[in-house]
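Extended Data, record Probable tRNA sulfurtransferase
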Amino acid sequence: MQYSEIMVRYGELSTKGKNRNAFIGRLTGNVTKALHEFPQLTIRPKRDRLHIELNGEDSDAVMARLRLVFGIQNFSASVAVPKDMAQVHDVALQLMNETAPQGSSYKVATHRSDHTFELDTNGMNLNLGDFLTEARPDLVVKMKHPDVTLRVEVRREAIYLSTLTELGAGGLPVGTAGKGVLMLSGGIDSPVAGYYALKRGVDIEMVHFFSPPYTSQNALAKAKQLTAKLAPYVGSIHFIEVPFTEIQETVKAGVPEGYLMTIQRRFMLRLTEAIAKQRGALAIFNGESVGQVASQTLESMVAINDVTTMPIIRPVATMDKNEIIKVAEDIDTFDLSIMPFEDCCTIFAPPRPKTKPNLDKTRYYESKLDVTGLVERALAGIKQSDIRASDEFMNQEQDLIAELL
């Protein structure tokens, strides 16, 4: 069957009252970015639906991208039919023959926005039900939880028929909850934290610390590829590379071993806050899970968070590792996260870090360093790029990693 449009139904937008139009506008923009590789599409937002006219584009490829866009409850591939009941019958039967095996249960569900059409909602349901009973006597009418629902949309320009409805990603359109920055490592947890931030409507930008020559191009490519895995949920994600070599070398040379990790993390947080303010972000996100490693005990969090008053949000804070791994597998970041490219969080990790660092001692050791100068030089060396939801980009990154392996 050649489909003519994808009909998108909104998710939590229905609860947003006076802000509904702003949410629909944001979702439309996100869908447009996610589908930028399909130039023939026409996207038409309405109050209760988003209509994506295919104009010859591949419906399967378009729907594969739509599955990842937050703010969508479900969507259906539909066929536009002229307002002639003989043609409506013909297309309805084709759709049912393709999607309703022998003995299936079904119902007809009509939505009529064109009230000038000769049949009202009940009339259309009865008309098509009677026709299908005669054309497909093997089918069983079932109003609750049928195997197949024939959806009918009567609009001014045509009648739209569909039998396949897919669940969307749910959540809120990215950007409706403001902007945040995510401290992206190369591990399992931070991409999952990013996924959850996106799902709640936060427009995240990635902040990744790298320390050449201690960290290789492999690690940087891996971080970009992890970003590319999340980019389809929004269309594109801003990626910020922060040079961290000088800071790590300075901290290692001037701070007692047990406090290396704590003070390194304090520098990371200072830099992330400065970048967040430059980029207009309102909060910092990270992948910390309480008690998972030395830097994630409550005592360590107190000592590290001491350098900022910006909100720090930890979406996976109370999840155990197996729960986080399950989500990482679902969003296809797990296999990439476990690739053995060391990031700057691990290369200078002391063998016995303090799990309960003393805040006064932390401040004292740090006071011996040129904190302001180190931060300013790191900020001066940042590099920025936009990573889009593009198969071409993802393939290039995969090729790079394979070559470096």
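Summary. The first helix runs from residue 20 to 34.
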